[in-house]
Amino acid sequence: MGTLEDMGTLEDKDKHYIWHPFTQMKDWLEEGPLIIKEGRGSFLKDIYGRWYLDGVSSLWATIHGHRKKEIDDAIKEQLEKIGHSTLLGLSNPPAIELAEKLIKIAPKPNPPSPLFAKGGRGGINNSELRTSMGRRPNSELSKVFYSDNGSTAVEISLKIAFQYWQHKGEKGKTRFLSLNNAYHGDTLGAVGVGGIEVFHNIYRPIIIPSLKAPSPYCYRCELDLTYPSCNIECAKELERTTSRHKDEIAALIIEPLVQAAAGMLISPPGYLKEVKRICTENNILMIADEVATGFGRTGKMFACEHEGVCPDIMAIAKGITGGYLPLAATLTTQDIFNSFLGEYKELKTFFHGHTYTGNPLACAAAIANIEFFEKDRTLEKLHERISFLEERLRPFTELPHVGEVRQKGFMVGLELVKDKKTKEPYPLEDKIGIKVILKAREKGLIIRPLGNVIVLMPPLSISIQEIEKMVKITKWAIERVTE
Questions:
Q1: 305 near 110, Cβ under 8 Å?
Q2: What are the start and end residues of each CATH 3.90.1150.10 domain in the chain?
Q3: Which of 154, 206, 237, 387 is the most interior residue, by most CB within 10 Å?
Q4: Could you read off the pLDDT of 339-369 as tens digits, one per residue?
Q5: CA atoms of 219 and 115, how far apart (whole Å)
Q6: Which CATH entry fits the domain spanning 34-67+378-482: 2.40.30.90, 3.40.50.150, 3.90.245.10, 3.90.1150.10?
């Protein structure tokens, strides 16, 4: 550790040189930054030697904890071979091995309908096939296109979906359908399918807007209905929009089960399955943005598995390397991939790529991450901790300024309200979420708010004792700030 003078220099240099993401820098410059220099398991250590429980997995990315030996060793072993080699015109062993592993763990299509069992009737056209099986021919995810972050994985998904229909001769399918409150990244295409005003409104003049459908935000229903008596009316509204514009829509993009950046908004049971049915019957592609929900966050490897849904395109990132290195991937079906095959002069090539696409170091980390899921039986052991977390969150519902507690697996959102009866939110100027997370920091817990929503998303490796600590500190911080 350096001297106190060195520490002060680091803080001063940070304020002088760095522009932090999603941060109001005026506030940052007035406060002392927290600078992390080390991590172990579920904990982070700052430059002064203080340890903090990492309650948000270093922005939802760390899976098995910090400094996981198996991932450390995989990166070191790969570094002794090569750090980077392009995937444009070349390949590398880790990228190939990882692609195989991703396809093996990806959501699978539902089993074929009995209609198509051996001895069933033949001569079925593609339209009948889509309707009866709920999926297209060659509908299993089977191809991997690498990139380096969630936004690019989504951008690639959108471009592939658009180009697919162009190759199919469906020239009118040029638009996208997304949900209100959606967040799919920060590149312009991803912003175009976003639906969070505070993030996206400023960019409206320079983006191509998407068609929108209601968000399944039951606590603040856009349709002024109440679940479950609503019969999931938001899905029916989505279907009406889809039916009106099906000849224009290339794809629908959705965060399966949880709209994460919107405040951990959890869709009601059956909603996702309905979305898939609507896409299939209206002949549009379904893009699942599993950037936040993937790699065990909801209790299954991917959120789509909870309702037996296999998307046509799936974007993944964040937890793919266990929180070690930037990497993302877009998975597609064989049917989609085949539409890009042709003679060189036909220009059916997917003209998209990144310098660090399929980086060997990142792919080696991702391979070790996935292998540890199996070695450690991570998902199997997760169920007990998810139940424990659910139990410990119940008392939050009694707090006078917690409007709703939302949980899906290890994805938790605690929505704070000024008035619980009317659901009146705290005004922006109160900065209530920021105050709560700063108060929690005093007790050694790092969490991050989404406006008035306090988010908990710890590493999957967190222990029962650490969950207890995280929840106790969070409750204490909310009570102190809101009382």
A1: no
A2: 34-67+378-482
A3: 154
A4: 999 999 999 999 999 999 999 999 999 999 9
A5: 40
A6: 3.90.1150.10
